[in-house]
Amino acid sequence: MKYREGNMKDHLVGSRVHAIDLFCGVGGLTHGLEKAGIDVRLGVDTDPACGFPYTANNDAEFLLKSVEYITAEELRSVFPEDGIRLLAGCAPCQTFSTYNQKASQSDTRWWLLLRFSRLVRETSPELVTMENVPRLTNQKVFRDFVDDLEDAGYHVSHRVVNCADYGVPQQRRRLVLLASKFGPIEICPESGSTIREQKCSSAVRCTVEVSGIACTIESCRGHPT
Q: What is the CATH number of the domain that holds 168?
């Protein structure tokens, strides 16, 4: 879906972000998104032990299912008709961790990022986010993921951040990616309010805090995306 200046501004201002959290685990990302004011509708994971802590600590429903087999129709049925849709997918990182000296492409978890990419293409949410270990940037599967997003019309921003810079009491480096169909998006060096709109002569800006990391959605007037 492409947004011209007028309908994109209407879509942003006053709209709530609704999210689905793939590879949700016990719900750490979901909890952060909810605290940022985002309406998380569903968490998806293959571990049945995650169901109770996920639903006990969050308002979202839990679906016990592999991302490999979930369909776009299932996800679309969860999102409301209005608002901004966010698809989050923090695939298991053990395969790419520096602590895993035996990682190889024979590990089925290696390809989960491409399963996520399939769901992004088929559901076409306005926003996409993921995080993983920094080492993932060296892998072709990550470059293919970014290429798929850009081919689908997303503006993509990714970099390695230190979680301590965002208020987490831990020196922890993570790769964070944000993608937007509204226009250029960037990972900002400071966290901000949940959603704030800024207007200027050249752009409409909306800053959204995603799991403690503030990102800016910007669309220049006269340059529809």
A: 3.40.50.150
